[in-house]
Amino acid sequence: MNISPYCRNIYYYETDRMDVVSHTNYIRWMEEARIDFMKKTGIPYHEIEKSGFMLPVLEVECKYKKSLTYGDSFCIYSKITEYNGFKMSIYYEIYNKETNELCAAAKSSHCFTDKNMKPLRITKKAPELHEAFIDAMNVTFSK
Amino acid sequence: MNISPYCRNIYYYETDRMDVVSHTNYIRWMEEARIDFMKKTGIPYHEIEKSGFMLPVLEVECKYKKSLTYGDSFCIYSKITEYNGFKMSIYYEIYNKETNELCAAAKSSHCFTDKNMKPLRITKKAPELHEAFIDAMNVTFSK
Amino acid sequence: MNISPYCRNIYYYETDRMDVVSHTNYIRWMEEARIDFMKKTGIPYHEIEKSGFMLPVLEVECKYKKSLTYGDSFCIYSKITEYNGFKMSIYYEIYNKETNELCAAAKSSHCFTDKNMKPLRITKKAPELHEAFIDAMNVTFSK
Amino acid sequence: MNISPYCRNIYYYETDRMDVVSHTNYIRWMEEARIDFMKKTGIPYHEIEKSGFMLPVLEVECKYKKSLTYGDSFCIYSKITEYNGFKMSIYYEIYNKETNELCAAAKSSHCFTDKNMKPLRITKKAPELHEAFIDAMNVTFSK
């Protein structure tokens, strides 16, 4: 499967007084990119929630390399680096859309749970969802 | 009843590249101040929610007079200006804590609803809550 | 001039525990829509800033009619309702993109200032900008 | 030196539709706690900025263990784990104030720069600031 990266303009309110995007917003962008990636690979997150599953965040990590500011746009390339029906890790590269420079590299880890946040394995509980995640591991990006 | 205003420092991430607090955050501060006011007047908002009621926002309004930035602190004085068991309006004055200048004047309107966002009158459904709101109208502030 | 409205998906982190978009985010959306509107009408806001002008917010107002939540998309139609080279007011209608229901109606007022937040009149200081704002008052929307 | 942890209530708008605090806000709390820690140890961050230095974030990391929601309060214990006049790392433990459970463990890395974001060593450029950071490494917490 071939999908497009997640791109958008930077909002004015996302900057801080250093005149760059507050580093705290990158974690929000990762969530936006993750949900966009899942939608494009055929696993819309609100369908997962409707089926009674959740995918809370266990861990995030972000390395900041180049700053971005208002007037810039970014593109995020997401990649599932680990998936076993129980846990999942995603790796993100955030680029300046105009200059194509790598601005940040990030990672998030997740587990599947039921509505009460109890961890579970989806392999047998949701075999179609499991297949969709397996397929999503082989996604490539068109520019 | 005599209560203290809601005061706190400004967070770095609340500023934007104009080097002042983003005007969008004042609406969040109003929510913080409203909840603090209700707690201090004996009507903690999460108790209201536990009782099955909600108090969604119907309308907000904010007039910006002086900017605030990182390094400043603010104090908010809240006042219930209308209450009839069905709807409620709150008026807020946001001051720079150091200079005592009025930085913004704001208003929010609310109605009472059940868990499904259906409007209701609490006068008889929750007479103690109703009394508490009546009392809260007479609150004064100690500095 | 005929432009498109400002539309986007709702982000997960924009919801709150009432399971709807926090009312505080609508004020941010107004900023996004305003900047998008100015870009589409040929007055990109970061160019205004580069020219040494700013357009701080004097007042905002928002009436909430229908809630939105994660999974929904919105479209915002912006309209300049007042402009005199010194002050400007914008009126916004926020629609649920799928159902086409009006979810909120809002207003913001602004004045032009220099870099030090001192108010000024752009009529003669920036005649081209002034013309662009006059033109922007006659913009219509294509769906 | 003996200081108090950074504690505060959770704001309503910090929750998301999972009915817990959005994981993205922990990164903001780290910034709040870091600035509070620096203030309490005699290195107020806005004084650092006034002296012409900045301390941008190179990297953040956060492991989520227990969720928090509206109605809860948290306390953050910050600790400088690395400092050499050029780079600094801080480790954070975020506790539920009532239950005393560890809710998250996090880390941020920073470097010192001038106003133009050019990295520099403060050892000789700002010897008093350097001493203050050395002292801050030995801070302990009173409950």
Give a concise summary.
Four copies of one chain form a homotetramer. The first copy, chain A, is of the alpha+beta class.
How would you describe this protein?
Four copies of one chain form a homotetramer. A five-stranded antiparallel β-sheet of chain A has the order 2-4-5-6-3. A two-stranded parallel sheet of chain A has the order 1-7. Chain A is built from four helices and seven strands. With 143 residues, chain A is an alpha+beta fold. Chain A has one domain: Hotdog Thioesterase (Thiol Ester Dehydrase, Chain A, Roll). Chain C binds chain D through residues 12-13, 15-17, 19, 22, 24, 69-70, and chain D through 12-13, 15-17, 19, 22, 24, 69-70. Strand 3 (57-64) of chain B pairs antiparallel with strand 3 of chain C.
Q: In terms of topology, how is this protein built?
A:
The structure is a homotetramer of 143-residue chains.
Chain A: E1 2-3, E2 6-9, H1 25-40, H2 45-50, E3 57-64, E4 73-83, E5 87-96, E6 102-111, H3 122-125, H4 127-136, E7 140-141
Parallel strand pairs in A: 1-7
Antiparallel strand pairs in A: 2-4, 3-6, 4-5, 5-6
The counted number of beta strands of chain A is 7
Number of domains of chain A: 1
What's the CATH architecture name of chain A? Roll
Q: What is the CATH third-level topology name of chain A?
A: Thiol Ester Dehydrase, Chain A
Reading off the top of the CATH hierarchy, the class of chain A is best stated as: Alpha Beta
Percentage of β-strand residues of chain A:
25-35%
Largest sheet of chain A: 5 strands, antiparallel
Distance between the termini of chain A: 14 Å
Mean pLDDT of chain A: 95
* Broad structural category of chain A: alpha+beta
Q: Which outline of chain A best applies? A: globular
Strand/helix succession of chain A? EEHHEEEEHHE
What is the radius of gyration of chain A? 16 Å
